[in-house]
Every structure is written in structure tokens, then in C-alpha cells.
Amino acid sequence: MTYSVIIPCYNEEAVLAETHKRLTAVMSGMDGDYELIYVNDGSKDRTPEILRELYAGDPAHVRAVMFAHNSGHQIAVSAGLDYATGDSVTIIDADLQDPPELIPVMAERWKAGAQVIYGKRRKRDGETAFKKLTAEIYYKVINQLTGGMIPRDTGDFRMVDRKVADVIRSMPEHARFLRGMFAWAGFRQEAVEYDRDKRFAGETHYPLKKMLKLAADGIFSFSFKPLKLATALGVVYLAAAVILALVFVIIACCGTAAGLWWLVPVLLLTAGTLHVCLGLTGEYIARIYDETRQRPLYVAADVLGFDGEDA
Ligand code: UDP
Ligand code: MG
User: DSSP label at 151?
Assistant: First the structure.
């Protein structure tokens, strides 16, 4: 039995030593060999140097993939999946918000036959009311659009069986919303509840812009319903046109002079909805373009700890 742990790292110099200590303490007590795969997602701080030090200190267990540029958390995790060799693969944040001590609990479930064991957040320490509220609304929207596919209060913290990791690796899409991809893959899934801690040190690397991109990837990669909005609105406009035409014919017959003031809001409403529909269509077109370019998902400038590939 071998265990891989993937740790995506973007500017995590403040936490890596502690994270490595806690992960090592947990993993060395496991019933099999393990590898800790740190993916440096184009950090601008001392993260790469620290990873080299960690590797020098424990070459038997430490692996590192160094990206040539920042590609985002979901891509960093995807790279980890490419390099992982374990029978089970765990994905965990570098900032200790996901407690490493939960890994043995997940492993027990895995050995009992579960193939995806995902962490479900009981409470979220250190997260703003804004983040909690937007997360709540987002899960409502995406589950409405996908027919309840994505489990609530889950992130990417999970242990998956080799078979599941291979399925995700076989999905080449660039717009990666991993928790959706795992949900789509299926298999025997179980939740393990945990309290999400505060970030150990440093600051979040998920500013609003990155969060919005992840949210959009989730919706547009897993639902075609936004495209159908244009059709639905078209039908509403047609119905409104027929009804209003009748109303105006009646008004004209009664000889009441009708002003044209109502034209302004009607025109603005039409223009507004048209632009929204165009924008939604554009989201899909941009993603189609992104896929057709067939760029590699990430560029690994350097790897450490993989046979024959040491930089
Ligand atoms: N991360 C990454 N690339 C990025 C942003 C974040 O690899 O572009 C990593 C980060 O180092 C951490 C994990 O993704 O291990 C989660 O990020 P963070 O803790 O900043 O997000 P939050 O927990 O605030 O949502
Ligand atoms: Mg975090």
C-alpha cells in the first residue's frame, strides 16, 4: 500500500516548514510507503528554495514539481495527479486549513472500500462572512444547474483511489473544476466531516478574481442551462410582444392617445438581456477556443525526486 499526497503551493514560504513537519509526522505513522508531492505553482517568494531544502532533507519522501509560471490551484493539483504513483492519492492545501491528521481516518475508509473520501467542512474558521455567504449562494446555484451533483461544504481536500485518479487524469479539459470532475467520475464516495482551521500563516491566494473564475468554470463546465436562457427569454419576449400589440390595438380603437414613454425601458430591457445572453454564449465560446488550442495544462520547469528526472 503506498500513499501519495499532493500539496499545491503558491507563495507559501510562511507555512511550508510547519506543513512538512505535520505531514511527515502523520505519514510516517501510516501502514505503507508515502510520497509528498509539492507542486510549486510559479511562486514569487522563497517557496522553491524551501522545497529544495525539504527535498535535500528527505529525498526518500519529498517530490517537487516546479511550474514555469502560475497556473492556478486546480492545475497545480492536476499536475500532482500526473506525477503521483501511490495506490491512494490525497489532495491537501499547503496552509494547514485541512488538517493532515485526518488522512489516517480517510485511509481507514479507503481500506474499507470507499474510493473517494472527501472532507466535508463542519465549521470554517477564519473565513469572512462574505466568503461563507457567497459559497452558500454558489452551491445553491450550481446544484440547481447540475441537478445536485456537487456535495455541499466540500473543497478539494480528499483521498481518492488510484482508479479515480486515473479517470481524472484521462479528462484533458483545461477549465478544471476538480470537485465537479470527481463528482462526475462517480465511484464509491464518502464524506468525512472536519473543522476547517484558520490558515496557519500567510494570506489567501484566492482573491475575488480567482474565485470568480473557479465559480464560472464550475458552472460552464458542468451545465448547458445558461445557454438555454436565450431561448427561454426569446419566448417571453415573443409572448410579451403579442400581448402588448393586442393592448395597443384596443387602446387605439378606444381613441386614447398613447405616449411612447414605455419604449425606453422596453428597449433597455431588450438590449440588456441580449447582451447577457451574448455574454453567456461567449463564456462557452472562450472555453471551446481554450480547448482547441491544445496547450499543455502546465509547464514543469523542474522536478525533484522523480527517478532519473532530478534537476
Ligand atoms: N494555490 C495554488 N495556486 C494559486 C493559488 C493557490 O497552488 O494560484 C494553493 C495555495 O498555495 C494553497 C491552496 O492552493 O495550498 C489553497 O489556496 P488558499 O489557501 O490561498 O485559498 P483559500 O483557502 O483562502 O481558499
Ligand atoms: Mg487556504
Answer: P
Q: Whose CA is nearest to atom 7 of ligand 1?
A: 73
What predicted TM-score, i.e. pTM, was given to this entire model? 0.83
User: What is the mean predicted confidence (pLDDT) over 112-140?
Assistant: 86
- For the CA of 76, the nearest atom of ligand 1: 7
Question: Checking DSSP bridges between strand 62-67 and strand 33-40, what pairing results, if any?
Answer: parallel
CA torsion angle 310 86 161 39 (round to 10): -30
Nearest-CA residue for ligand 1 atom 8 is 72
**What average pLDDT score do residues 228-237 get?**
87
Q: Give me ligand 2 centre to Cα 98, in Å.
A: 8
Tally the residues of the chain.
Answer: 311
Please identify, by atom number, the ligand 1 atom nearest to the C-alpha of residue 92: 15
Mean pLDDT to the nearest integer, 215-222: 88
Shortest-distance ligand to the CA of residue 65:
1
Please, which residues have CB within 8 angstroms of residue 49's CB and are 6 or more apart in sequence?
Answer: none
Q: How confident is the model at residue 311 (pLDDT cuts 50, 70, 90)?
A: very low
Distance from the alpha carbon of residue 37 to the mean position of ligand 2, in angstroms: 18
C-alpha cell at 139: 452551491
How far is the centre of ligand 2, averaged over its atoms, from the C-alpha of 140 (Å)?
22
Rounded distance between C-alpha atoms, residue 306 and residue 311, angstroms: 10
The answer to whether residue 43 scores a pLDDT higher than 90 is: yes
CB 143 within 8 A of CB 150: yes
Ligand nearest the Cα of residue 298 is: 1
Residue 295's pLDDT band, with cuts at 50, 70 and 90, is very high
